């Protein structure tokens, strides 16, 4: 039995994350999904709360083929402690998946195997692009980037209204 | 659809928690289980990490009849912020279950319905009693208090050895 | 012009505090009143929020003869920084009033003059006694210890109900 | 009786703030003035301590027509907790005044009415402009932006010297 | 070359610590001495600042036979992160010396060798005993417990006066 | 006997720091060297842990003519408390050396004498330049900027590999 760890901010959860998780599902038996910067919300860079992001991931993985655990991870603002923080908050795991340079470096120094994930088209599969689209969208262009389950959560919390106002773009 | 919130320290998860969760399962459709004081571990009062406690709960609820979410909750050390902290970290919920006076008071002031859980025999169903037994056990007397799935997790991390040493009881 | 500094937890504001402030008013021109442990509330030791305590003090000092400033002070949990914290959060002051050994020592080491306040009968003029009475009161015995303005604030927030429940004394 | 809440960083208190407070005074009976980012000082963006800012506000509102309370508010760095933090530290209020998108969004989500304040000429009534002028002023050009009571406080703490040095502009 | 790590609160540094360090000096080539709970001071349990404790240790080890490093260590209040905290703040070390159950357990779980130190008479070689004596001493009985270099530091900061006042024992 | 205080981030320790320390050694009898932002590491701006930086400084000052103390200093994120933090963590000192505007301002306001250090060629003697060179170096061009003792520490922890990866420059 191999259990993987995969961390993201999921602001919001989009098709890029889904693709990576599908790849992970082919290679391991279980995956722990860490919701990074869990304490952050209500900014244009981090619009959604951890609870909202948990709902996005959960609903999008209804039919996910392998067992998965979702855990919010607050920042520690002290990089040298981050791996211990993750290990303390998470069920044990055997391998980590990431393309984030800091995450790769920290896990590697701690002797934990890290596997790179295939890079997908950044213009389509990027949180930055999705959030920019949310702020600027007249209709529901942003909904193209995310599973319909995620769009539901966002609508449910009036998320587009929130991010537009935070961007000073509400009129 | 009614979703409940139930928080405990689960140091360790024992039959008392299981009984309460079974009651909750009869009354609601889904339950969010908060792992309280998630940042605490390695003391006689809080021997296990949040990750270890998540494993205990997960494995013990394999056949649990309703959908459940498990989220670690770090302390905020500022009671007036606790309800907002919980709401920010958790999927939305409709009702909370608790017998803890502080939890009851805080949720009540925030306008959230709280249901008391039936009180079970404290000598058998109490974390304090289980931990005391762990420290003093010669054989595996403590294992009587917890599901076998929990005993497995504890054995896996040499938990009895850990709590005995922390209590200055290792020789 | 002499401005004094006086800090208390004011859980709740009672006649003992009032007596001390009256003494201070005779000796100086203005007083800064620090609400200590401002982030604490909802425990039997610290039942009221800083906001509630500010209301108690404000209303009780309606006719106070000298100008007064009320500032909430969060704990710093690092004694050597406490005087700098106070000085940073408060309008400048010339002298401090206290009977608290730690406060006296810290101000003294920082070169700030500290004046002791006359000690009043501890059984009547003590926060501990007032809170104990609140928890145990059948009628409104606790109201004897505090100005009627304070009793009003406490009633307004259902404070007796709160402290009784926190003490596990609500039935 | 209507009590309002108004928060600003007041780095420093200037005529723009005064205008807004005068408007508030026409609409409500009392106002709580929150000193935001209270723990910050000694940077070009936040040159003054909370204590210094309290003095600025107090002195400028000597003849203010309605009752006002001034409370320093330390940052919580966790937006979802901010409203609870404010409510815990402040006397109760009925309505908030703000033009800050984050403040508006957070209060609105918490069900608290927010009123926009009239926008005044940003080039004259802006903290950024005042601080830039302080750093660059040869004579006392900056004093045009603030009430004379504020200029007094700034002079009293050698504030121009401080901000110039912090900007690397002292020679 | 073997470098050891040894941590203590050193409130104050006394002959018990000196004995342990002499033993360590016989077994290794260098030693890192961690000043635990560095942020604590001005209480009867932790009377001295980290800076004062550094001076005590430094002066007492003037002629110490092996190279030694002294580093203050602030608490992290999150046991699972403590070893990473120590490793991040300290030059690399090969072995730890301790009799503290928590320290032993944490280093052991992290795969770091821990050596127990010989236990000395607790009534003579205990910080608790020294501090109790300081509070109660009429003459200089406490000075028997500590190197003269430590007594000098304590006198220099009026340490006995400080601890007596903090204990409410100053008259 | 005059003891100085000198603080830097030492990311990494380079010839510029060595020059300044040599100047200090000519003017005072002892020096406390504070390792600033001690909790930061594993970023391109702060690549090395406090422990690694302590090793760099220690080894580079093997033959330093005056007695020196090295203490890691975690950030307090509250400028008005910084001087008290430093004084609490450090052996007493008489004078501070710095060219940092914030450090100069804070010590000056606290009544501590600050001496400017001679400015050396910024292109050669700057941490920013050294780190940029580390990220871009094909061979060991960065090693020109630092004492060979520092290069050894960096090699020992695979520091160049670390900073290159953190910069997204590893291929």
From TrEMBL, chains A, B, C, D, E, F:
It holds the Pfam family CTP_transf_like. It comes from the Archaea. GO terms for molecular function: hydrolase activity; nucleotidyltransferase activity. Its EC number is 2.7.7.1. It is found in: Cytoplasm. Gene3D superfamilies: HUPs (3.40.50.620). InterPro entries: Cyt_trans-like, NMN_Atrans_arc, Rossmann-like_a/b/a_fold. It catalyses: beta-nicotinamide D-ribonucleotide + ATP + H(+) = diphosphate + NAD(+). Pathway: Cofactor biosynthesis; NAD(+) biosynthesis; NAD(+) from nicotinamide D-ribonucleotide: step 1/1. Residues 5-132 form the Cytidyltransferase-like domain. Keywords: ATP-binding, Cytoplasm, Hydrolase, NAD, Nucleotide-binding, Nucleotidyltransferase, Pyridine nucleotide biosynthesis, Transferase. It is an enzyme of class 2 (transferase). Belongs to the archaeal NMN adenylyltransferase family. This is Nicotinamide-nucleotide adenylyltransferase. It comes from Methanimicrococcus hacksteinii.
